[in-house]
Task: structure prediction
Amino acid sequence: MKPGLINESLKLIRLYWGKTQSELARDLGVSQSYVSEVEKGNRQVTLDLLSKYSDVLCVPISSLLLFAEHVEGAPPLGRGKRFLAGKALDLLASLVPNDVKEAG
Result:
């Protein structure tokens, strides 16, 4: 099964914070194999799991819900991909601590 946007986003956020699957699993209270299955798209992402990710990774659940949407069909001429890429970049930028933003 191909991972969906939410699965890929959760992996991207985990990697952004420099956490291994094992570290994240411990923080979420699940097994490492569960995190792996979620990231591969082999497990459904529940609202409860999104809430845990939100708490552990300091990401508003509303931001995560954007990536939980199921999009049918191909985006017109790549605009959809650019839109979602922009949203992902905005989300990652919002996670940068203020002291790092001010130094840059």
The chain is about 70% helix and 0% strand. The two ends are 40 Å apart (CA to CA).
